[in-house]
Amino acid sequence: FNLITETGKFPIMDLYLRLAQTEKIQGYIDSSTLWMDLGKPDQMMIAEEMLKKVGRG
Question: Fewer CB atoms < 10 Å away: N or C end of the chain?
Answer without folding.
Answer: N
